[in-house]
Amino acid sequence: MRLISLVFKRDGMRRRSLPVLASVWINSRSIVPGDLFFAMKGAQFDSNQLIGEVLDKGAAAVVTDDPMRAAEFSDKTILVDNVRRELSRAAHHFYGEP
Predict the structure, then answer these.
(1) Each residue of 37-49: pLDDT tens digit?
(2) Quick one: three-class SS letters along the chain?
(3) How much is the pLDDT for 76?
(4) Most buried of the four, 20, 22, 26, 39, by CB within 10 Å?
């Protein structure tokens, strides 16, 4: 487990700090307690539909750009404007520079 502090901002207003994360994922099947999950919409599937499932598996939080799903799970979601951009930033901070 790595110690990391990620802060996400939405319009400079909402902030949430996650001090301890196990890993960063986009695959809901890989989630274990303490992971950060990025819910993304794709051409074939919208993983925002799995937010409840990954939280039940113990995900520390879910990053999403879907305001409806973020409101439904407000205590464990981080609403961002662009989930792919935030995934890139989180991976950079979590895994370091290659």
Answers:
(1) 999 999 999 999 9
(2) CEEEEEEEEECCCEEEEEEEECCEECCHHHCCCCCEEECCECCCCEHHHHHHHHHHCCCCEEEECCHHHHHHCCCCEEECCCHHHHHHHHHHHHHCCC
(3) 86
(4) 39
Residue 62, CB-side half-sphere exposure with 13 Å CA sphere: 32
CA separation for the pair 59, 40 (Å, rounded) = 16
How far is 18 from 3, CA to CA, in rounded Å? 9
Q: Which of 9, 48, 45 is nearest to 37 (CA)?
A: 48
Two tokens at 80? 């961002």
